[in-house]
Every structure is written in C-alpha cells, then in structure tokens.
C-alpha cells in the first residue's frame, strides 16, 4: 500500500493531445473524411445484416438476388446458419496452433450452440442496427464500438475476410466520435445530451491575478487611522 501511495500522483496534470491527432479526431474540418469512412463501414454492415434478415442481397454486385444460405430468421429453422458457422469454427480449434482459441471454442460449444436461435437474432439485428446507426450518423461512437465487438467475435471464431479492416476503421471512428457523425444526426443529438462535439480550439490558461495590497490600518478608539 505504501508503494501505491508513493506512485499516486499528488497533482492532476493535463497533457494536451498532439496537434495532428487533435486536428484529425476533433476538428470539424475533417468531418468529411469520417463521413466517407462511416459510409463504407455502414455499407458493409447494412448489406450483411439485410442478407441475414431477408435472405436477399442489396450489394451493388448482386442487388435483389437470393443470398447464399437464405435468411437466418423466421424460416422455421432459425439458428441453422449459426450451427454451420460454429461447427466450422470448432473444426479449426485443434492442433498445435489453432485458428480458434480453446477458451473461445468452449464458449461457442457450450453457450452459442445451445442458444443458436437467440444468437441468430442477436447477430442479424445487431449487424443491421450498427449499419443504420453509422449511415445516419446517430450515436456513431456507440455504433462503431458494437461493430468492432462483432468483428472481434468473428475473428476469434477464425473468420478473417474484411473483419481486420473493419476493426481498424471502427476503432478510428470511435476515436473520432466527436466529429464522425457531424454530417449526420449526431450534429444535433450530441448537444441535446450535453456532450461536446469538440474540444476547445485553444487551451485556456489561468493567469495568476495580482491581489491589491491593502495598507495596514491601526484601529483605535476613534476608528481606523491610516
């Protein structure tokens, strides 16, 4: 305990961010960049979630066509696609250098598989809602966090594809949460929640003030005398 008390800072100091970092992640002049990133990531989530919900593709390449595997929900065999995904992941959980770690394979086998229908709804609706939040720029930081969480689970299950790229872009959107939804609903939502979009444009320093020196007075019976 004495060591912890010794290491504990005795004063609170503010370390300002690097100017380039501040410009990229908090300056509204860079909002256009995060709009492009946001639209790309939202497209990935919307198309993936819509395919799972409806069984139809809305990608540019195959718009309106039946998606591989069909819909995940409301088909009478909800959870079938989750079963296939999990079984494929479990097949890569063995060996000296498994693609799926043992602890995550146990989670898939004992938690996800017995509740495949529930996870089918969570994944499908989760992907679609993340896409909606990002494309509208509504609570962009929160939507990006949930997107990164989904991507991390897919990678832990041994699925790479575009997941590493989406994780990187999602983390950047989280870092730029103040302005990543500036061209979107966050422009009005964040002020309503009393959350500032931007840090101050300059550091305010408290200048020491000079106190007026008072002339000492001597108090007598007849009142103060200079």
Describe the structure in your own words.
- By secondary structure, the chain is mainly α.
- The chain has one domain.
- It is about 50% helix and about 5% strand.
- The protein is built from nine helices and two strands, in the order αααααααααββ.
- The chain has helices at about 1-5, 20-25, 30-55, 80-90, 100-110, 115-135, 140-155, 165-175, 185-190; strands at about 220, 225.
- A two-stranded antiparallel sheet has the order 1-2.
- A hairpin with a 2-residue loop joins β1 and β2 (about 225).
- α3 (about 30-55) runs antiparallel to α6 (about 115-135), α3 (about 30-55) packs across α8 and α4 packs across α6.
Rg: 28 Å
Given the C-alpha coordinates, what overall shape results?
A: globular
Helix segment tally = 9
**Mean pLDDT metric:** 83
What fraction strand? under 5%
> What's the β-strand tally?
2
Low-confidence stretches: 198-226
Helix content: 40-55%
The arrangement of helices and strands along the chain is HHHHHHHHHEE
Instruction: Tell me the strand order in the biggest sheet.
Output: 1-2
| Main pleated sheet | 2 strands, antiparallel
Query: Could you give the distance between the termini?
Result: 56 Å
Structural class: mainly alpha
> How many domains?
1
Mind sketching the topology for me?
Layout: H1 2-7, H2 19-26, H3 31-54, H4 80-90, H5 102-112, H6 116-136, H7 140-156, H8 163-175, H9 186-192, E1 218-220, E2 223-225
Antiparallel strand pairs: 1-2
Protein name: DoxX family protein
Keywords: Membrane, Transmembrane, Transmembrane helix
Organism: Reticulibacter mediterranei
């Amino acid at each position: 305990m004495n060591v912890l008390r010794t290491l504990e800072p005795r004063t609170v100091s503010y370390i300002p961010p690097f100017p380039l970092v501040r410009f990229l992640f908090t300056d509204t002049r860079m909002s256009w960049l995060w709009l492009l990133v946001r639209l790309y990531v939202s497209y990935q989530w919307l198309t993936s979630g819509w395919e799972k919900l409806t069984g139809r593709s809305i990608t540019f390449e195959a718009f309106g066509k039946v998606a591989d595997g069909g819909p995940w929900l409301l088909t009478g065999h909800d959870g079938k696609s989750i079963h296939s995904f999990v079984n494929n992941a479990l097949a890569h959980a063995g060996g000296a250098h498994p693609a799926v770690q043992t602890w995550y394979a146990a989670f898939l086998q004992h938690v996800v598989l017995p509740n495949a229908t529930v996870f089918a709804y969570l994944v499908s609706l989760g992907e679609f809602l993340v896409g909606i939040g990002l494309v509208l720029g509504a609570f962009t930081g929160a939507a990006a966090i949930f997107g990164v969480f989904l991507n991390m689970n897919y990678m832990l299950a041994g699925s790479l594809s575009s997941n590493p790229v989406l994780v990187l872009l999602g983390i950047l959107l989280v870092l730029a949460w103040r302005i990543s939804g500036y061209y979107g609903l966050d422009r009005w939502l964040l002020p309503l929640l009393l959350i500032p979009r931007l840090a101050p444009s300059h550091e305010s320093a408290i200048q020491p003030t000079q106190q007026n020196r008072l002339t000492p007075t001597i108090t007598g019976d007849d009142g103060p005398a200079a």
